Records
---
Amino acid sequence: MALTERQRAVLSALIDRYIESAEPVSSRMLARTTTLNVSSATVRNTMSELEDLGYLDQPHTSAGRIPTDRAYRLYVEELVHLKDVATATQAQIRETIDIATSVEDVLDRASQVLSLICEQLGIALSPHFDDGIFNALELIRLAEHHLLVVLTLKSGLVRTISMELRLDLPPSILAQTSRLLNERLHGLTLREIRHSINDRLRDKVRPDFPLLVQIVQNADHVFQMEHEVRIFVGDPTRLINKPEFMDRDHIADLFCLMNRRHQLAGLLNTTPPEMNDWHISIGTEHQTEAMSNYSVVSSAYRIGSTYGTVGIIGPKRMPYARLIPMVQFTASIIDEMLATY
C-alpha cells in the first residue's frame, strides 16, 4: 500500500528530526518544529496510521515515535534529498588520500578519513580479484618436466605458478596451448573461467593435447589469484561518542564486531555494483542480531578490471543525506588514485 503525500511528508520530517535529536519524536514537537503546516492532532493521527503500517514504533507508552527499519528503507530509497559534499570536505578527503604510497595505504587512509568526517566507522575492502578479467597466459619451460605459468589480468596484475609436467613437451606444444587458452578465455573473469573452462575447451581436451588436459584439470588452482581480501578499519572514537553508545554493552558489541574481520567484510555489498553507486543495508536486513541497530553505506571503486568496496558502519540514525555523497566521493577519489598503480 503506497503512502499518501501527507504520510510521506510526516514520515520524512519525523526521521529527519530523530536523526538530529536521537530522541523519540512527539506529534506536538513535529508540528511545532517543522514546515508541515498542519495541526498537532493531524500529525498525531498520521503518525498513528504510520505506526499501524509498520513505519513507526513507540518504545514507551508515553514517548514519541521512532522510525522502523521499513521506514529507513523507504527514506533512503525515496524520501532523502542528498546534499553536495562541501568543497572543504572534498579537499580534506583528497588531500588525505593523495599522499598514499601504495594500494594498501590508499585504502587505510580512506577508512580513516571516512571515520573522521562522517563520525561513523570507516571501512574499506581490498579488490575482489576473482572478478578480474583474464588478459593473457604465457607458458615458459623452466627445466625438464617443469613449467612456469604466467597469468596476467587486464588490470596489470600478474601471477606466476610453477607446474610439474607429466610429459616433457617441446616449445611448439607450449605455444600452441597458450594460444588456444588465450583465444578461448580472453575477456572472461577468473570466476567465469573456473566455472566454464570444461565447456569452453571440451572439443580440445583430448589425449593429443596433454598439457591442455592438465591445465583444465587444475583450473581451480591455475585461474585463482591467491589474494585474501583485506579489510581496513578506521578509528571508532567519534562513533562511540554518539548517544547510542551510552550503553557499554553496545560499545563491547562494536569492538567485538571490529575484531571479526571476515564478518565485518561480509557486511559490505559484495555483488559487482555500478561504480561509485551506493548501497545501503539497514538493521534486520543484515540477518545478524549484532547488526540489528546499525546501517552500512558502501560504494564501489575500481582498480583495472577488478573492484573493491569502501563505506561506513554506524547507527541506523545516521544523516544519510550528508553521508551517502561523502562515501560516493571517497570511492571516486580512490578510483583516481588507483588508476596510477
---
Amino acid sequence: MPFADCFYGDIMKKRLLCLFILLFARQGFCFDETVTVTDQTGRQVLVKQPVNRVVTTFIPATLFALCSDLGDVLVGASTKDESSSIYEALIDPEHPPVLVGNRTAGLSLETISSLNPDLVIMYGQKDGVRLADRLTSLGIPAIVIMPESMARITQTLDLIGRAAGKKAHTDKVVTALKKIQATMENSLNDTDRPRVYYAASKLLSTVSGDMLQNEMMGLAGGANVSEKTSGFFVNISQEQLLSWNPDIIIASDRLRHDAKKKLSSPEFASIQAIKDNKIFRVPNETYWDFPSPLAMAGILWMSSKIHPKLLYEDKVQAEIETLYDTIFGSGFSKNYPRILGK
C-alpha cells in the first residue's frame, strides 16, 4: 500500500475515534477514571470515579460526608447517626441509609460490602485502620480520617473532596472556615484568657491537650485548664477540679443531668465558675464539639460565652448562620434553626 494511503488511512481512523468519543459524551456516557489519595494515616487508596455510593461508620465521618455535599449518595451509616438532628434535616426519610452498626457494638463488614460502596469513610480511632485495610483487600476503597485539630479538619475536607469528586464544594467550605478562624484570632489577639474547664459525658471527665476541644477553647479566647494532659478523655479527681478552679465551665450536651446537678452541691461551691454562674452547655444536638467542620460554629458559640463583651451573641449567631448556609445551601439556617442552637 502506498505511503500516502497509509497516512490518510491513519488520519481517518483517528477522526472516527474522536467522533466515537464525542458521540458517547453527548449521550451522557463517561469512561471510568480513578484518583489516588493518601488518607490521614498515610495509606494510599485508589478510588474509581464517579463516586455515587458512600458509607460512613461514625458520627464525625457522617458529618464530614454531609458537609462535603455527599448526603444524596450516602447509602450506609452508623446506627448512632440517627440521633443527629442535622442527619435528619439532610437525609431523605423515604430513602435513609442502611445502618451498618457502630464502633461500640461493632461494624458489619458484610452489610458494608453488600451496599457496593464506591467509597467508605472510616474514623481512625480504635480499629478503624484495620477495618479499612480489610475493606480495601475486598476491593472496596476505604479512607481513614483523623481530624483532631482545625488544620486536620480542613485537610480532611480536601481529602474527601478529592476522593469523592467534590473538590469545588469542599474548597468553598475550607475557605469559609479559614476566614472565620482568621477573624477570631484578630479579634481575640490581645485579650485576657479565662481558665476554662470542659466537662465531657461525666463531670470529672475532660479532654486532654491532644484533643480538638482543647484547640477550640483556645481559639475561642480561653485557656483549657487540662491542656497539659495527654491522650484521649481524661478522668480527674474532685480535688483536681477544685485545684484548677476554672473561671468558666463548658459542658458537653452529653453531660448527664445528674452530673450537672452535682455542680450545685456545697463541695464545688468554691469554684469561681460556679460562684459567677458561668456554666454553659453546648446546645443540644448541634455536635459543635465533635471533630467536623461544624466545630467552627462551636468555637464561635464558645467565644460568645468566654468573651461576651467582645463577641455579642447576635453577631455570633449571624456568623453561624452564614457558615451553615455556605456548607448546606442558601436558606438552610432559616429552615432548621434548632440545628443552629436556637
---
Amino acid sequence: MADISTIKSVRVDALVALRIVKHATGVYPTTVYGALLGMEVNGVLQITNTFPFPTSSEGDDSSSSALTPKNKGVMWYQNEMIKCLREVNIDANNVGWYQSTTLGNFINANFVENQMHYQSQMNERTVVLVYDSMRSAQGGLAIRAYRLTSQFITAYRENKFTLDALAKHNLAYKDILHELPLTLYNSHLATSLLHQLSTPPQPPSILPLSAAGLLNPPTSPNPIFPVNTNFNALDLTVDPILEKSCDLLLESIDAHNTEANNFAYYQRALAREQAKIATWQQKRKTENSVRVAQKLAPLPEDEWTKLFKLPQEPSRLDGLLVSRQIKQYARQVDGFTATSSAKLFALNGGTPRF
C-alpha cells in the first residue's frame, strides 16, 4: 500500500467541475455518482475528464445500491467507457470517483466502502470528490477531495474496530479521512476565451452621410453596464442553511449518544459476567483446597469457559463515522456563524457583547 503522502494535492480541470455541477443539479436532491479520469504527476493528481454513472430504472427496488460505484453493473459500464475513451486517445486512467451531497452529509458506511473499493482494488492513487449542491447554490463552489488514511485502511481490512484494535492502530475519528488541497485549472485556450468574453464589445462606428455630418459628427453614448446591486450582505436574519446544519448536527449528536449508550450497556454486561466468573473461580478454589485436605484430586478451574459466555464487544466503526460526521457539521456551522457574527459586530458599532 503506497503511503498517503504520494498524493499531495489535487488539480481539477474547470470543465470537469462544470460537468459535476451539471450532473448534481440536474437531479437534485438525489445523490449522484461518477468516475474521474486523469493521472498523477509529481505528487499532483490531475483530473482531466469525468463521466456520470448510469442511474437505475424507475420502480427498481435496488435503486439505492444500483448507483454506487462498487455495483457490478456500474463497474462493467465504467470499464466499457474507459475502453471507448482509450480508443479515441482521451485520458482513460481511473483516478477516483465523485458524489454529490447536501450540507456535508456524506460520511457513512456506504461512502467508506466505495472509497475502500477504489483505494484497494482499482488504483491506490485515487481520490473522491464531494460536491455540496446546497452550499454551492449560495454562491461558492463547495467541492472537496478526500482519501482514506493508511491506518484506517489497515483496521478496515482486519474488520476489527474494538478498543484494543483502535489503540493498536492509533486510530481516532479524525484519522478516517484525509482532505487534500484542491485547485481548479483552466487551459490556456479557455483562459484566453474568458478574457475575451470579459471585454465589453465596442459600439460600431457610424460614418457621416453628408458634408455637414463631418462638421457635427454624431456622438455615440458610452455603453452603460448595469451593476447588479443587492443588499443580501446587510441581511441580519439567520441563514436557513445554518438552521438546517444545526438540525443535522443535533441528529448526529443523538446518533452518537445512541452508540455511546450501546457501548455502555456492553460494558455493564461485561462487568456482570466478569463478577460472576470471579465468584465462581473463588468458589472453585475453596472447593479444591478442601479436596486437597481430603487427599482428593482437585477439580479443573477452567470450566468457567463452558458455563459463562462473555458478551461480544460491538464494533466501534459506526461511532467513529458519526463522530467524524459531527466534526464535518461543526466546521460548517463555524463557517456560517463567522459571517453572522461579523454582521452583528458591525451593527453594534464594533463593541462586542458578552
